[in-house]
Specification:
This protein is α/β, with parallel strands linked by helices and 480 residues long. The protein folds into 3 domains: 208 residues, FAD/NAD(P)-binding domain; 119 residues, FAD/NAD(P)-binding domain; 117 residues, Enolase-like, domain 1. The chain has 14 helices and 22 strands. The strands form 5 sheets. Strands 1, 2, 3, 4, 5, 6 and 17 form a 7-stranded mixed sheet that branches. β4 and β5 form a beta hairpin. The mean pLDDT is 97. The structure holds flavin-adenine dinucleotide (FAD) and nicotinamide-adenine-dinucleotide. One of its GO terms (molecular function) is flavin adenine dinucleotide binding.
């Protein structure tokens, strides 16, 4: 067994780990980056990039299918599944190639291959070959897709999103389980590429939405295009020749059996923290076994251990992994004099169509933190001018503002160009703008942003009213 001594050890060479390694080095410290799997990051290999490539192909097919409504007839449309997957894979490999090039610029002595686990609060063992003694450690181990054990018994045709990007052709049919972001993005893309898709939702959730009105609209709009089975449990999956036989049970107890080429488990991802021997790290864990940490410093308690990215399960997104990694790496370098880093206004986008975005404080969080102290404005896109011009007049935006200060707090939406409207609104939120200040900004015509203005005007009207249920202040109400 070899022993290495270093200032900072980073576990995981994904987006968070690379960012942490660079920040630790920039802080003037020696650092090692330990990776057990392939280099290239989840985002580039099997996440953000290949999924958006598949969606881009689906959008091309959908544009042709939608063209006749404009009086444009593209003729016989043929989807060449092998060509679709060939482009997805070759462009994906290009993105992975950039990451691999970056890895080559990291000195060999800073890179270690193998699975790291704690043997003490400042010591790791990598496979059976190296002991790393580190003054500070960053956990950036990412997350893995979940598949219930009983589904795994049905064999290799029960897959996760990882497997989709290894396909060399499109299958005939896929059952997608889960109406989270992955289920909706991949389910809709495959549907638009001519694959028979059914999406099973055990409840009524849709992507990251928490506002009941936006959620109901999203279920209605997406349900109009896709075969989504809400309130339907997957009861059993069994192999059946070259296919899988899926038995589902709806809310009324009605059973249904259908055959699919694949079942795609999109029921969430779990942080990779359970094979780290965290009990030897001497840090406090929550009830799911995830280290407790300060979200501004990424420090676990007062220890020399930091965490970043999907591993902490706070908001498992690429931009968050990069930000958190930078904060964790910089603080590992300057430990014990840790400093709060920049945490931005939360922003999420689901690239289904219509797109779904949330930003700032979500509706559910506001109900808990701002009960009786926030107002809601809304716009439906059904009659919004530009959206109607483009035949993308579906969805709804709900915006939230604070009584008294008039500050803009956040929004949830499904609708056209949500990725762009989400950015616009999250920038206003982070800048701490009031609703009135936002309405003073320029709005061109005809643009979907005029829909945002309608929602903000509605919010301004609501904010000018009395709060719905004034909360008496117990300390200053006479007699209390
Ligand atoms: C299909 C899909 C689509 C997505 N689309 C988007 C999107 O559009 N936008 C967006 O913002 N986000 C998206 N995401 C989420 C995004 O990809 C992740 O949030 C991000 O990649 C997480 O980065 P990370 O560094 O935390 O994890 P990773 O990149 O997974 O890195 C963790 C690394 O740690 C290694 N590791 C784990 N345990 C150990 C150990 N014990 N020892 C050594 N190494 C270890 C792993 O092998 C891995 O390489 C998507 C995810 C998926 C799956
Ligand atoms: N555009 C993006 O930014 C993007 C795209 C893809 C993934 N991601 C990230 O990846 C993460 C994981 O995505 P995901 O879609 O796998 O998870 P998710 O947590 O978003 O959704 C999981 C879904 O599965 C359902 N579910 C859970 N257990 C189930 C069960 N046993 N049977 C049936 N349904 C079940 C849940 O109710 C939920 O609808 C997301 O949280 C997101 O942060 C982001």
């Amino acid at each position: 067994m070899k022993t290495i001594r270093t200032d900072v050890a980073v576990i995981g060479a994904g987006s968070a780990g690379l960012s942490a390694y660079r920040a630790a080095r920039a802080g003037g410290k020696r650092a090692v980056l330990i990776e057990s799997g392939p280099y290239g990051t989840t985002c580039a290999r099997v996440g953000c990039m290949p999924s958006k490539l598949l969606i881009a192909a689906a959008e091309a097919a959908h544009a042709l299918a939608a063209a006749p409504a404009f009086g444009v007839h593209p003729g016989q449309v043929r989807i060449d599944g092998e060509a679709v997957m060939a482009r997805v894979c070759s462009e994906r490999d290009r993105f992975v190639g950039f990451v691999l090039e970056g890895m080559e610029h990291i000195p060999e002595e800073d890179k270690l291959r193998g699975h790291a686990r704690f043997t003490g609060p400042r010591e790791l063992q990598v496979d059976e070959h190296t002991v790393v003694q580190a003054e500070r450690i960053v956990i950036a181990t990412g997350s893995s897709p979940m598949v219930p054990q009983e589904w795994q018994l049905a064999g290799p045709r029960v897959i996760t999103s990882d497997a989709v990007f290894d396909w060399t052709d499109l299958p005939r049919s896929v059952a997608v389980v889960g109406t989270g972001v992955i289920g909706l993005e991949l389910g809709q893309a495959l549907h638009r590429l001519g694959v028979r898709v059914a999406i099973y939702a055990r409840g009524g959730s849709v992507a990251q939405l928490g506002d009941p009105q936006v959620l109901a609209e999203a279920a209605r709009v997406l349900g109009a295009e896709l075969d989504i089975r809400f309130q339907t449990q997957v009861a059993h999956i069994q192999p059946d020749g070259e296919e899988l036989l899926l038995t589902s049970r709806d809310a009324a107890g009605q059973e249904r059996r259908e055959r699919y080429d694949y079942v795609l488990s999109a029921i969430g991802r779990k942080p990779n923290v359970h094979a780290l021997n965290l009990e030897l790290a001497q840090i406090a864990l929550d009830r799911r076994g995830i280290p407790l940490y300060d979200r501004h410093t990424m420090q676990c308690g007062s220890s020399a251990i930091f965490i970043a990215g999907d591993a902490d399960d706070e908001l498992p997104l690429l931009a968050e992994a990069a930000d958190q990694g930078k904060i964790a790496g910089a603080n590992a370098a300057r430990f014990p004099a840790v400093q709060p880093g920049l945490r931005r206004t939360p922003l999420t986008v689901a690239f289904c169509e219509p797109q779904i975005a949330t930003l700032g404080a979500g509706y559910q969080a506001l109900c808990a933190s701002h009960s009786g102290r926030f107002a809601v404005g809304m716009v439906s896109f059904s009659n919004q001018g530009r959206s109607r011009v483009m035949r993308q007049n579906h969805g709804m935006l709900r915006v939230y503002g604070e009584f008294g200060s008039g500050r803009f707090l956040g929004a949830e939406m499904i609708g056209p160009r949500a990725e762009h409207l989400g950015h616009l609104l999250s920038w206003a939120c982070q800048a701490g703008l009031t609703v009135d200040a936002m309405l003073d900004m320029p709005f061109y015509h005809p643009v979907v942003e005029e829909g945002v203005r309608t929602a903000l005007r509605d919010l301004a009207v609501q904010l000018a009213k009395e709060p719905p249920s004034p909360q008496p202040c117990p300390d200053c109400t006479p007699g209390t």
